[in-house]
Design brief:
By secondary structure, this protein is α+β, with helices and mostly antiparallel strands. The chain contains 16 helices and five strands. Strands 1-2-3-4-5 form a five-stranded mixed sheet, sandwiched between helices. The chain is globular, with a radius of gyration of 26 Å.
Length: 423
């Protein structure tokens, strides 16, 4: 089923992270939400379609499938997307290679059994790989987004997929001893790398089912409060209309309980150190709300609604090459009498791109999971002699939990003279 034709249940796996933190969002979403199409969402849907098509056909190379998917896509399938999907395909096929009788189940709707709201906790898993000989089930989630790197430990979405796969009729619990939960997220940096997995027992899935039933009972039988915050509000269907989200974002800047009568932002020079810290820590939260407001207003304007004081206009036209780069460079060289390289100079790949190419080349020369992992390490080891980390003369202000060590103000800013006192 195409992603755009799906509807999400109130307690579906993809919604649980939000609902667990903001139980009142269930009620807010039921009141009505404005669905705004997202370019990033469409890009993710296309990457998932490419991956699902490859797995359904048993194709191991994303690039081979891209040629068949591209003609029906309104968005480009570029090299980065193929590389990201390839990482996912490699993991799936490597997991399946452990058992000759492996079953690869793609885009499977899993029924998560609950005591209330039957069907509202169901969802679609990206890929399940069942190894009957090893009595092992892989639950693999492909995340193409680059913004938020997700942890696999205690991941509610994957635990629900696993619970549904084992207890909802996909795979009998009597045939499974262990479940491997995995996130493949090629474009978001995570300290444990783009592929992260953890093994859980069937008993842990039972515990998750018990917790889920308790959550549903709370949300359905009690008037739960709205708890706005960056993580839970980011993908909430009701974030464009939620008054609690709006008030929290505005109150962060105003530092007043009633934001309705404030018409100017405070001067940062007059804020205390504690207040400066609070506003900086909420920067992305406030930006999230403003971006959502702009996206929603633009969407409504495109539908024909008149936004007071605003109008919809065409973007400024910009010149573009009307042929491919190679053809243009050759014609420019002929016209000018200059060389091809003058218009299209050779350029070394970025360090990240070069490392990816080197790792892939090393891995392609060996077979087996252990040898491929060692090949990846060897490639990165060999490449380390070609790079150097140059310290920056600039500094930046980050939260205390950031991995980088703090610098000494006395060392870096001894030449700076303070005017007045900062409290």
């Amino acid at each position: 089923m195409a992603p755009e034709t799906r509807t999400h249940g109130k307690y579906s796996p993809s919604q649980l992270e939000r609902v667990a933190v903001c139980k009142g969002s269930i009620r807010e979403c039921e009141r009505g939400a404005i669905e705004v199409p997202s370019e990033y969402g469409s890009e993710g849907d296309l990457a998932h379609e490419l991956a699902a098509t490859a797995l359904a056909r048993g194709e191991r190379r994303a690039l081979d499938v891209a040629c068949t998917v591209l003609p029906f896509s309104l968005m480009p399938i570029d090299k980065d997307m193929c590389n990201g999907v390839q990482l996912y395909l490699d993991y799936v096929f490597e997991a399946a290679s452990q058992d000759p009788g492996a079953q690869i189940i793609v885009e499977q709707k899993v029924h998560v059994p609950t005591t209330m709201c039957n069907g509202e906790a169901d969802g679609h898993s990206d890929c399940l790989v069942y190894l009957p000989t090893l009595r092992r089930l892989y639950v693999i989630d492909f995340k193409y987004g680059a913004g938020i790197a997700k942890d696999v430990e205690g991941n509610l979405q994957l635990l629900s997929y696993g619970t549904g796969a084992v207890f909802g009729g996909t795979i009998s619990p009597s045939m499974v001893d262990e479940v491997v939960l995995c996130i493949v997220q090629p474009r978001a940096f995570h300290k444990f790398g783009p592929i992260r997995d953890v093994t859980v027992t069937v008993g842990e899935l039972v515990d998750h089912g018990t917790w889920l039933n308790g959550l549903i009972d709370e949300c359905e039988n009690q008037d739960q409060p709205l708890t706005p915050g960056e993580e839970q509000c980011r993908f909430c269907p009701a974030n464009a209309t939620c008054k609690a989200f709006e008030n929290a974002a505005l109150a962060t800047m105003m530092d007043v309980p009633n934001v309705q009568h404030v018409h100017a932002l405070p001067d940062p020079a007059h804020l205390s150190l504690d207040r400066l810290s609070h506003v900086l820590s909420a920067k992305s939260f406030v930006s999230l709300w403003f971006n959502r407001v702009e996206e929603t207003a633009t969407h409504l304007a495109k539908l024909g609604y008149q936004i007071p004081g605003m109008k919809l206009v065409e973007p400024d036209a910009r010149r573009q090459w009307h042929e491919n780069d190679d053809s243009i460079a050759r014609k420019l060289a002929v016209l000018s009498g200059l060389t091809y390289d003058d218009f299209m100079p050779r350029k070394l790949l970025s360090i990240t791109e070069a490392e990816k190419l080197l790792v892939d080349t090393y891995r392609s020369k060996v077979k087996g999971k252990t040898k491929k992992n060692n090949a990846s390490k060897n490639a990165r080891h060999d490449m380390a002699f070609l790079t150097v980390k140059m310290p920056s003369s600039n500094t930046k202000l980050v939260t205390e939990d950031h991995a980088s060590p703090a610098v000494s103000p006395a060392t870096h800013f001894s030449h700076v003279k303070l005017i007045g006192d900062v409290k």
